[in-house]
Amino acid sequence: MDILLTNDDGITAPGIAAAYKELVKLGSVTVVAPSDRMSGAGHSITVFEPLKCEKVNVAGLFEGFSVTGSPADCVKLALMEICPQRPDIVVSGINHGANVGINVYYSGTVAAAMEAAFYHVPAVALSYAFEEPCDFAAAAKYAVETFDKVKNLSLSAVININIPKLAAGKPKGVKIVPQSTMGFQEHYIKKTAPDGTLLYQLAGGDHRDVDVPCDTLALTDGFITVTTLGFDMTDYKNMEKLRQINW
Amino acid sequence: MDILLTNDDGITAPGIAAAYKELVKLGSVTVVAPSDRMSGAGHSITVFEPLKCEKVNVAGLFEGFSVTGSPADCVKLALMEICPQRPDIVVSGINHGANVGINVYYSGTVAAAMEAAFYHVPAVALSYAFEEPCDFAAAAKYAVETFDKVKNLSLSAVININIPKLAAGKPKGVKIVPQSTMGFQEHYIKKTAPDGTLLYQLAGGDHRDVDVPCDTLALTDGFITVTTLGFDMTDYKNMEKLRQINW
Q1: How far off is chain A from B188, nearest CA to CA, in Å?
Q2: What is this model's ipTM?
Q3: Does A111 lie at the interface with B, CB-CB under 8 angstroms?
Q4: Residue A56's domain spans which residues?
């Protein structure tokens, strides 16, 4: 199996190294990942300037391609220029922090997998609920084990896998759950710079409480969550209301 | 009506000025927009550094808040800190370039509207198919006229409005159409920097041909397109396949 591996925490992040160690057991792994951490990159792409790309050796573990762009840029560039042939799958992660609920919109990890899906390449996003200290080796093992069970399903959707916090013990099991659409509890910390400019630092970011079965709830409850994500954002129900208007 | 106006081309872009001129006829407009052009910003947000925010006067037309962040940052900050009260609607645009098909993922314009929807504030994204020379005044007039017809529908979805090229004459009408999921025809132009680093500039970006009714096709055919976009990305159909596995 030819695997393209990327992430949004950057090519030297511990999560991608842990994912590499597990994935290399399943096939040949090409790493193309951002040179810097790109958390919160969402599905941004670089349009006004060229991407710089260089081969780097990461901690003696792998040789990969470091790209001065977003996770989605990395996948575009890998598929069009770097990979010698179309990979069988694109894996993104393992991210330091969960990507459930509306966080899938802010997530560079999920966007990289989505970008692969635009090219009809099967793709999976792997994330691990934030905890300190964290055990990326264990999280990557659980994530790739989960991925290994779904990899032959030929799904026409991105597979979004999240690993719960592990400090309290191993995951309680696997839950197949929809994405929560509940927003965040967040706020800004306001400061004034020496020159008088107002500065606002985003803080918080926990999901608002939910009580229906969904990814955020199952993950908090200690389950590995698996969600399939599509890329038709059309809301067909509301579209009918628009059709009632006399245009 | 209290309107929050933002965009992704930056607070001094001609598109937002044209939108302002039309929207101010409908109510009170607060402008909170990126200090720089943020095309391709997608749903990125700024997590590692504070946003700088300053009041600016734009060409004698309006006083607005200029923010060193993405369009989604601007909406978050406006809703939590800047707007004296919750706006009745968030308008994003008018963007220089269409936001149809999978471009809705790369679009900061659409992301800003989506961010408002996360806060349950009605939102609309306005875009205008790229042409040179362009007529933002006419495009904004058509866009706000279209918006004005849907603004009281209480839709629980983002309304994505695109104005076709206008060089050949006025739009042929309005079409309510789903988002196309067809990818782009794109490529990289490869160069080598003086220090030997490989540089890749993204080029192209036309949608691949489609022949089913959708936003890309209707816009190319000269219609104003209106699409409702939701934010549950769950692909329920493929999720059933996952449920067949013996977990």
Answers
A1: 8
A2: 0.94
A3: yes
A4: 2-181+210-243
In chain B, the number of structural domains is: 1
Write down the residue that tokens 């200090």 correspond to: B35
Q: How far apart are CA A57 and CA A11, in angstroms?
A: 10
> How far apart, in Å, do the first and last CA atoms of chain A sit?
52
Whether residue A156 lies inside any domain: the answer is: yes
* Residue-by-residue DSSP string for B107-158: -HHHHHHHHHHHTT--EEEEEE---SS--HHHHHHHHHHHHHHHTTS--SSE
- What's the rounded Cα separation, in Å, for the pair B168 and B185? 25
Q: 173-192 in A: which are within 8 Å (CB) of B? A: 173-174, 176, 178-179, 181, 183-184, 186-191
Quickly list DSSP for A124-173: EEEEE---SS--HHHHHHHHHHHHHHHTTS--SSEEEEEEPP-TTSS---
Residue B65 in 3-state DSSP? strand
Strands B158-163 and B224-229, sheet pairing: antiparallel
Q: Which residue has the tokens 């991407």?
A: A51
Identify from B198, B199, B214, B236 which residue to disrupt to test chain A contact, counting A C-beta atoms within 10 A and taking the largest count: B198
Does residue A95 fall inside a structural domain?
Answer: yes
How far is it, in rounded angstroms, from Cα B58 to Cα A59? 50
Alpha helices in chain A (DSSP H): 14-23, 71-77, 103-106, 108-118, 136-150, 215-220, 236-243
Say whether B44 and A42 touch across the interface (CB within 8 A).
Answer: yes
Instruction: Quote the CA–CA distance of B125 and B93 in Å, as a whole number.
Output: 6
For the entire predicted model, the pTM comes to 0.96
Residue A154 · residue A117 · CB < 8 Å:
no
Question: pLDDT, tens digit, for every residue of A58-111?
Answer: 999 999 999 999 999 999 999 999 999 999 999 999 999 999 999 999 999 999
The CATH number of the domain where A139 resides is what? 3.40.1210.10
Provide the residue-wise pLDDT of chain B in tens; the chain has 247 residues: 999 999 999 999 999 999 999 999 999 999 999 999 998 999 999 999 999 999 999 999 999 999 999 999 999 999 999 999 999 999 999 999 999 999 999 999 999 999 999 999 999 999 999 999 999 999 999 999 999 999 888 888 999 999 999 998 999 999 999 999 988 889 999 999 999 999 999 998 777 777 789 999 999 999 999 999 998 999 999 999 999 998 8
